[in-house]
Each structure stands twice: as structure tokens, then as C-alpha cells.
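QA checklist item 7 of 12: single-chain prediction sanity check.
[x] sequence parsed
[x] length recorded as 691
[x] structure emitted
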Amino acid sequence: MAGTINISDVGPTGAQGVQGTSGASILGLNNTFTGTNAFTTLSASGQITGQTNFSAGASGGDYPSSGYNFARTGTSGVYNYSATDSTSRLEYYNGGFRFYGAASGATGAAITYALRGELSSTGLGIGVTPSYKLDLDIGALSGSKLFRFTGASGQSLFGYVDGGGSGITRTDPYNALLYFNTSNGIELYTASTQRLVLNSSGNVGIGTASPLVKFSVVGVNGAESGTATPNGSISIGETGGNNQLLTFGVLNGSGNHSWIQSRNSSTTSTYALALNPSGGNVGIKTTTPGVDLEIGANTSTVRVLSIRYSTVPTYLSSTYDGSSGLATLSVNSYNTSNSSATWSSFSNTLYCNSSLQLGTSTTSSDIRFLTAAAANTNPTERMRIDGSGNVGIGTTSPAVKLDVVGNDALVSLTNFTAGAGSAGYLGIKARGTSSSPTQALSDDQLTGLFARGYHSGGAFGTANVAALILYAAENFTSTAQGTYIVFGTTPTGTTSRTERMRINSSGNLLVGTTSGYVSSRLYVQSSGTTSSTYNSAFANSSGTVLLAVRDDGYFFTGVAANSPYNITTGSAANCFINSDGGLYRSTSSLKYKRDVVSYTRGLADVLKLRPVFYKGKGEKDGDTQFAGLIAEDVAEAGLDEFVVKAADGTPDALAYSNMVALAFKAIQELNANLVAELQSVRARLAALETN
């Protein structure tokens, strides 16, 4: 389209219009004044070229004397309020706006403006070309207010700059303040009081302006309240539900300590406190706990753990002595005569009533048990288990697996049961190892009791000089476990133990020997064979010997009131001692006899015998004269039925009581002879009388 379109409005002092020109221009704007900035063209491609001046008010050049003026050249434009107002200017610049103020220069001439702000595609800059979405440059505004946000009810949020760089003081009139100080820190205030600090080291402080660690809280000083109102420095938890809280606090002053309490937020109720409930070790005074709870110590002698009972004057304590390598677990109490007293009543000496000490180093690997003999006294060691596994009671250096030292009875075993029950010592024997035992074999020691003594050389003997030993009598199986018991003592003047007696697997008691006589329940073998020693003897409670057997065979029945010697009888003797030493009762009843026939020897045999006087060779015979027969003479007379033979078959004794048969037969024969002779004499006398 060719030609020109003019749109004009005649104002009070001039006219405005839209004017087209020939060529490529479509739209032009111009005012009534003339000059190089007479019009603006809009090209066919949509580009604006040239310069457009728009004014309202008095006519003039680029800087009207009054009214508004808008000018554009290339990619920039300027809007002025009036030539007489040099405090502001708005400039369209690179698709944004710049705001100027505090101008310098003469009215109607070129004026220099100071940039106050810029809005561009980068952001909004106040006092600076923006490099961020919101960019403020306070410049020389130190100590002034930066910004304010005011709510409908008058609440305001202010931004400040502290020119001194020392931070906002507590006398600041505002109730809440977030302060970025010149020391690269952040501070938070409420009610004109500093509440939180984040310093240049990244440490956060609450209640302190100088946090020493990453998170430092300084709260109310004091112990846990124990009341319905929580106290402390930190509280974690909820105020709904069961109102459970976890509170942390510090008490400075008497009884300095820090504390943690799981409790209710509005009552005195308390709750359980779990450490690592899902797993993990807990360490006290150690940074590398190796077990569920490990308590370390950094001094040689220190109490590691104490457990106090709230209603009684006693507590459980764990201590460690680095010099001796002993860790002690003890029960401690305070000296008092009031057994019902509580903790508040104690002011006297602290006593350790009983303790358990555990060796923890090469210095000491013992376990020691200590108790106090009386109230308000410190304990004494009573028992220990040493590093080799020996147990000592009454001694600190046990030499065997159980070593008991004392002045009174050392061991007492008592059993109380509803039935017969049992009480005693149990010894168990196995070959092999504890993890792989094997059967006990014949003559293995199953267990035993042994004795030693302290000698004049200033030490305990090393030999077991007395013993009671229980042995296996056969190889043990599940159905065969025979045993025997051996008793041993040591002869005077020696140190070698000798077996004296045993009870064999048959229950026979063998004294002085390891094998019995036939199957005798009691078999005693002497140590001698002469009259100077005895095999056995029995006496009553008064010491009177009732029966004794001498090693030379002498048998003594004693002289007690009812001894065989003192109990007499008119009955015939009926005791016979055989040549094998057997003692027999002599009998006469037909029921004890067989093959009975009339005796045929008589007077002629009696006449062969030689009665004699003699003295015995026995130690008890002395010079006593006896009368009798000689066994050898009787044997030579052919009367062997009256001769008792020795073991070697030689004549040894006579069965005098049996010789009555010979005497009676001789008397009968003599009587018959006398009767016949008397009859013959009578017959001759009668014949003489007749003659």
C-alpha cells in the first residue's frame, strides 16, 4: 500500500499523529516538532527503526520542559517524567527495564543518572545489574534498612545491614531477627535475644554464641526434675499419644553430671530407654566396643560400673586396678547400725561387703572371691581359681585342682530329700579327652582321697602319704563296671605309701594282701611269722582283748568275765584242733557215726603202753609236770586209731577221750578173767570143803 495515514489529536500545545511514508516503511509516529528524531518507521519485517519522541505538554527537543517524554533509539528507549524532575528515569533496555535516580546535570541539558535497579531476563537487580534472580547491592547504604514485608495486621519482616559488622545487639527493637554477620555467620534472635548461631566453622549453637562443636546446646542447668514438668537442654519426642519424650540435660555444680531421661511430657511417668535396639555394640570410655556393652577406663585404678539400689544402702560396683591387673565386682554399703536406713541417712565410711575379682593380664589371671566376716568391715579373700584351673579355699596358691586350707572341718556334705537320697563326693574317670572320652580300663584310678603334711623342712610334702583310692576292677562297659577300694598309709620313718587294706570287687575285706584266702569275707595277712607280732586281735571298749591270733599261730581267747576260760562246765570236753589248724567239736552220738563194730583190742594192748611223766616245751608250760602217753609209743603199739597225725603223717597227738574204748575193753577182759578165776577158786574151795 502506498501513501500516508495520519492519526492526529490536537492537544493543548501540539498534535500527535501516525504517519506512513513511501518505500518500505509502514507506520510512523511523530509529533509537531521537527528535527532528526522526526519519525519512527515499522518495516515490512516488523523492525522499528529511527527514533520516536512522544511528549505530552510543552513542545521541545528530547528533554521537554514539562510533561512526559518517551524516546527510543535502536534497541533502547528512555522515559522521563519532566525536565525539571531529575530524580528518576525509566529506561527500556535489551528487553528489560532500568531504573535510575539521583541524577546530576543542568535542566534541559544532558543529565547523568545513577542506576537504582534493573529488571531483565536474568533477574531483578536493586542497585546493580542482576546476576541472580534477585540481586541487591546495598552500596553506601550500610546501617540502613534493606527491605520490609508488612502483613495485613501490621506485622513486618525487615532486612538490615549492620555497618559495624559486629552483629545485631540484644537491644535491637525487633522481636525476631535472622542476622548474617560480617564474620561469615548466621544468627537468629527472638524477643531481642540471640537464640541460634551458625558460625563460619559450620558449628550450630543454641543458647550459646560460641558453639565449640557442630551442634552445641546450652540450656537450663540442673538435674532431671523428677516432676511432671520436664527440664534439660534437649527434648526429643511427641506431645500427643503417650506424650513420651527423651530429654537431655547437664548439672553444673555439686554432683556435676550430664543426664538422659525417657519420660512423659506432662506426668512423672518414665519409660524404657533402648540403646542400639536393632543391633550394634555400645561403648563407654572406648571408641571400639567389641561386645554388646564394653566399658573402658583411662586410669590404672578406677570404678568402671556402679549399680545402686534406690531403697537400700547398698550398690553393686565394678572397679579395675591396672597395677595388679584385677577387675573387681563388689557389693558396697555404708557403715550404719540402722538396717532399715535409706541412702539419705549415710555419712560414714563406705565398705565393700563382698566382691569378685577377675584377673585381666599376665600379672594376674585368677578369679578371687571375697567376703566380710562382720558388718562394717572390708572383705577377705575366701576362695580363688588360679590361672591353671586350681581352686583354692583358704589359700592363695592352690597346688591341686581343689586345695582347701583351714583350722576346722574343711568339707561337710549334707543332703535333705524326701526319700533316701544321697550326699557325698562324686569322682568320674574316663580315658581320652573331655571332647572325646573313652572307657575306663581295669585298675584305672576312678577317684581318690589323698593326704600330705607340712614337714620340718618348711614346706608341704610332695608325696601323698595317705590315700583312699577307688579303682576299676575290669574294663568298663555299659553292663560291667566292677570296682575295688584300696587304703594306703606310710610307715613311720619313711615317705613311701604302702597299701594296707582293700575291699575287692566281691566285697571281701583283704588286710595286708591284695588277694584273698579262698572266698573269705575277711582275710588278714600279717607282716610277720613269729610270736612277736599278731595277725589280728579283738578288744572291748575297755581295751580288754577278747580274741587274738598271733603270727606264730597262737590263739588267745582272753580272760574277760565271760571268756571261755572263765565259763566252766562239768560236761565232757568236746573241742578238737586238727593238724591243719581246724577247730572241731568232738561228738559221740550214733548219728555222727557210721560202720560201727565192736572194738577188739583190749588188755593185751593196754599192757603194751608205757605211761610216763613229762614236762611240756610250750612257753606257758614252765616246769609243770604232766603224765600221759607218748603218741609215738601208742603208734608203735599198733593203736593208730588213737594217734592224731601231723600234716607230714607223723604222730602229733593222742585222742585221749577215744582211748576209753581200749580201757573199757581191757577192763571187760580183766573182769572176765577175774570172774573165771574166781569161779575156779570157788570150785577148788568147794572140793576141798567136800573132802
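[x] summary fact logged: The radius of gyration is 67 Å.
[ ] second reviewer sign-off
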